[in-house]
């Protein structure tokens, strides 16, 4: 796949993208994968694409991000109280990760969970991220009592010592069609902030 004309000459395809944010985070945001010409190009997840515009604007309104947009790694964005990662670390062809990609990348999410010792809440952006979060938590020995929690916007489940919250992904197909609105996304992050501060 060739980059679009506006990014011609840049050599960024298939570069893995790490998570980023506050090492003392109480909230972990889990996305699907870096956007082919967003995070894959900039080297920072959700940076330089429209999904990131929605995500960081919402996090800014709730007080988790220092600014409402992020266009490149050195643009001054800081995240406070949260860490942003993805289920898959490289841009998948056609934005559809394979089971092999999902399984290969899972240990990175598990390791982030281990390193972020202050985590209390995971926000899964979409059903793929919800599944990845449950798999990562299970790898650490944490399961939800009862049946496996089902994804939905605003869904909430207790998984071991964590709260798992679901939100529709801020993809263009969701935001352009009104499946996800700013108020809906803000409500999930406000709830995440509320739960993360409980004793």
Task: Describe the structure using short key phrases.
199 residues; alpha/beta; Uracil-DNA Glycosylase, subunit E; 6-stranded mixed sheet; globular
What would you say this structure looks like, in words?
- The protein is α/β, with parallel strands linked by helices.
- The protein has one domain: Uracil-DNA Glycosylase, subunit E, CATH 3.40.470.
- The chain has 6 helices and 6 strands, in the order ββααβαβαββαα.
- Helix 3 packs across helix 4.
- The longest helix has 17 residues, at 99-115.
- The model has no long low-confidence stretch (mean pLDDT 88).
Compile the SSE list and pairings:
Elements: E1 20-21, E2 27-31, H1 39-42, H2 50-62, E3 82-86, H3 99-115, E4 121-125, H4 127-139, E5 156-159, E6 162-167, H5 172-175, H6 182-196
Parallel strand pairs: 2-3, 2-4, 4-6
Antiparallel strand pairs: 1-3, 5-6
Helix pairs in contact: 2-6, 3-4
List how many beta strands DSSP finds.
6
Could you tell me the CATH topology label. Answer: Uracil-DNA Glycosylase, subunit E
Helicity level? 25-40%
Level-2 CATH architecture: 3-Layer(aba) Sandwich
Uncertain residue segments = none
**N- to C-terminal separation?**
49 Å
Mean residue pLDDT: 88
Which superfamily, in CATH terms, is the homologous superfamily? Uracil-DNA glycosylase-like domain
| Percent of residues in β-strands | 5-15%
Number of domains: 1
Derived from helix and strand composition plus strand pairing, the structural class reads alpha/beta
Spatial strand order of the main sheet:
1-3-2-4-6-5
Written as H for each helix and E for each strand, in order along the chain, the element string is EEHHEHEHEEHH
CATH class: Alpha Beta
Instruction: Please give the largest β-sheet.
Output: 6 strands, mixed
| Gyration radius from CA atoms, angstroms | 16 Å
Shape: globular
DSSP summary: helix tally: 6
């Amino acid at each position: 796949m060739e980059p679009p004309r506006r990014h011609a000459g840049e050599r960024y395809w298939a570069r893995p993208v790490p998570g980023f944010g506050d090492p003392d985070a109480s909230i972990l945001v889990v996305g699907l994968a870096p956007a082919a010409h967003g995070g894959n190009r900039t080297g920072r997840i959700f940076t330089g694409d429209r999904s990131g515009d929605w995500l960081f604007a919402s996090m800014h309104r709730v007080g988790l991000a220092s600014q409402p947009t992020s266009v490149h790694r050195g643009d001054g964005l800081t995240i406070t109280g949260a860490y942003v990662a993805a289920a898959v670390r490289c841009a998948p062809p056609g934005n559809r990760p394979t089971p092999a990609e999902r399984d290969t990348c899972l240990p990175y999410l598990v390791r982030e969970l281990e390193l972020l010792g202050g985590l209390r809440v995971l926000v899964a952006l979409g059903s793929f991220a919800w599944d990845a979060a449950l798999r990562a938590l299970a790898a650490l020995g944490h399961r939800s009592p009862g049946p496996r929690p089902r994804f939905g916007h605003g869904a909430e489940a207790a998984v071991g010592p964590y709260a798992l919250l679901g939100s529709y992904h801020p993809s263009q197909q969701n935001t352009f069609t009104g499946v996800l609105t700013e108020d809906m996304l803000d409500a999930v992050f406000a709830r995440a902030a509320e739960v993360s501060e409980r004793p």
